[in-house]
Batch of 2 targets.
Target 1
Amino acid sequence: MDQTQAIWIRDPLSILADGAERGIVVRGGKIVELVPRGREPATANAVAYDAQAHVVLPGLINTHHHFYQTLTRALPAALDRELFPWLQALYPVWARLTPESLHLGVTVAMSELLLSGCTTTTDHHYVFPAGLEDAIDIEVAAAQRLGIRVLLTRGSMDRSQKDGGLPPDSVVQDEDTILADSERVVAKHHQRGEDAMVQIALAPCSPFSVTTSLMRATATLADKLDVRLHTHLAETEDENKFCEQMHGCRPLDYLEQCGWLNARTWLAHGIFFNSGEMKRLGKARTAVSHCACSNQILASGCCPVCEMEEAGVSIGLGVDGSASNDESNLMQEVRAASTKGSAACVGRPELGEIALGKAADLALFKLDELRFSGHGDPLAALVLCGAHRADRVMVGGNWVVTDGAIPGLDVSELIRRHSAAARAMHAG
Ligand SMILES: [Zn+2]
């Protein structure tokens, strides 16, 4: 698409922005004009896109996910289990990931996200069995093909069962390998600046699968490379108990001891913080990704979102999964919990809002399905009646979803190959 061409998204049915009743103009990947009621665009030669049937939202931002888990959805061995036994049932299956199956799993997850109106997503990839050393490179290539903005995290695990951790030896790596590869993927893929389409963060998996030495070394490396830090924390009572037994303190104290309690970090879940800990998080400007559906399925508990926001913590939304959700539909998470801190989680203040100078990342929804019939307000209807699928999605000024589909993506063929790869993994 010609980025110098201005596009006027004209006369939306509704739009989540003030003073843009007649729409917005985008050019060069950014929002360059809001067109108020009764006015025409001041931008010359803007080509109009008629949005009279559309509700226009800022593109949604997914702050926590594990793309590869689309290959292990609704797996009988993992159903009706809480986090620790759920993980123990799945680790041996995940150990069978290959470059080809990862590519398919990632493509499915990102496609689902795009079709739900998501324009920026994170991914937390922490399973590195032998042969899957290029996992992050595979993810970058898939994101670039689909045109979605990503913050991919180079995850890691180095505490296996023989060191008192939860995962088997087959899915962990040693600290030197992890740190060297973290440096490599940041150098190769991490883009800086407001236009960045691909960014990398560093993400040891959780207190029960990572050594203290790796936690500390990763924080030091993130400082040196100036990239963000991510991990799971305070997801379950089991984790609290593990932390107290292994480290003699609660998870947040442990995080602080490891040099992580700062604005560089965002945490997945954050269910079991007490009020003093919430204040410490707010003061440190550490953000939290809330994964409502995943927490419900694993019966982990409920993240105290309102209390946390009052303590000054930015809360973003995450689909998590897809083995604990088991879908990648971000609009459904908005229905489960409305928050607006996702841009802060990913450290991208230029995203997540329809305003002058912000990125032209947009999700356009139609209200022509049964579920919306009889509504009294288009914007509220999107959330409350449960919108599932965007009709059009724009990332950085480019249309990446049109008429509810991803141009050039053969969905039937993707389902066929992805299902076959999943079956091969389940069978072992
Ligand atoms: Zn997770």
Note: Residues 99-115 form the longest helix (17 residues).
Target 2
Amino acid sequence: MLRRTGGPHVLELTDVADPVPEAGEVVVRVEAIGVNYAEVLSRKGLYGWAPARPYVPGMEAVGIVEEVGSGVDPDRLGARVLCGVQYGAYADRVVLPASRALPSFDDFSVEENAAFGVNFMTAWVALVEMARLRSTDRVGITAAAGGVGTAAVQIAAAFGCPIVAMAGDDGKLARVRELAEVTTVNYRSPDFSGRLDAAAPEGLDVVLEVVGGEVYRACLARLAPFGRLVVAGYAGLDYTLWNPLSWWRAWRDAPRMRTMDAAVASVGVLATHIGYLLPDEERLLGVWSKLTAFTREHGLRPVVGGVYDFADLPEAHRFMESRASVGKLVVRTA
Ligand SMILES: NC(=O)c1ccc[n+]([C@@H]2O[C@H](COP(=O)([O-])OP(=O)(O)OC[C@H]3O[C@@H](n4cnc5c(N)ncnc54)[C@H](OP(=O)(O)O)[C@@H]3O)[C@@H](O)[C@H]2O)c1
């Protein structure tokens, strides 16, 4: 439960009433939860797509259908499903529309299933639906060792694209090189933008950008004509109410682009947030079916970078915030 904003300690383990399914809904007994950077931001009070507190955070989980509401096929009872929700997944029971409880992957572990949905969907929507990725595109990916990043690297590699993977740590970049053939650039090293120029001398055609600030600006400057940069996050932005300097930094580092400058460079800046797609079920399920078919065809697998007990969920937040995590952090409820 999240009653107030603050550090990981504000995540409170508490008893709440079991959810009851309404018509068209299912209740899922959660086996594992996927932790997202967006939940770190929500906990800090920096996330727009969060409900009013108090609420149970958590956007994705995998578990077993335990109850069905009226109008839902009872044959669904006992099935393992992936659940994507705005909030409520940091729990041992979650309720959601039956149509959004999606079949799990039989050949993935429970943890891998918990790690798949948000990260792969975000990477796919950004690269394929928005940037219209082609095999000849030179692709840049920021926070490439993270949950979204490792998904994006695998998707772009399966398309056959040359990839420049960027992250803030050499050890993390070494882990990305185990996933696919990539050129790597550490954006916390001196002369990041010179190193990016050297890694992509003819520019980048597509960039998936989730950091903001100098990383965003350097990637934008490296876009080749007809290039598309998709903003899907700004993990580097932080501010606190009591520190006006931090507001100014957040303003300075927010990704922006003037249309006239885009025209001169013949590039496009796009942005996406998959949360807002949740009510558009038809579009969402269409994209999901293309993504899951592609995942199976190319044998992609989410990278699980750590598994925590439910009681240690604040530790998973702490680790993610430390920037040391690789891939997806998963929390087991049992
Ligand atoms: N648009 C959408 O629908 C959508 C959906 C899911 C996620 N996202 C966004 O995608 C990004 C990645 O999400 P994720 O859940 O996969 O997390 P993640 O990449 O596993 O973890 C966040 C990463 O962000 C990087 N980072 C850069 N500056 C940071 C800072 N000041 N503090 C902390 N981390 C910083 C770190 O990697 P380095 O140290 O390598 O820089 C860190 O490991 C986030 O910005 C998230 O908000 C967007």
Note: The longest strand covers residues 25-35.
